[in-house]
Hints:
two-stranded antiparallel sheet; globular; Arc Repressor Mutant, subunit A; alpha+beta; 4 helices
Amino acid sequence: MNLAPCSRTSDPLSSKLADKEITLNGTREKQIKQAYEAVVKHRCCTSRELSELTGIDRHVLARRLPECVQVVKSGMRKCIYSNRLCVTWDFR
Length: 92
């Protein structure tokens, strides 16, 4: 998988190094695959709901869901855990 950098040009060097490390060692690709599989199994959920249902860290999901080319934002609704208006995710 050919992945574009996930760090911004304005990020500190530590973020750029971490980006390079997780991309080169395969962690990022694995996390993207896990995020996609979570959405396929649990459609139209928020990242927090997906985290609670799958055990995947919510912050990992929040970072990787936008990188999944097969996943799209499907709307907004109140999250059942945070009771806040949140984006929901679905697959194409």
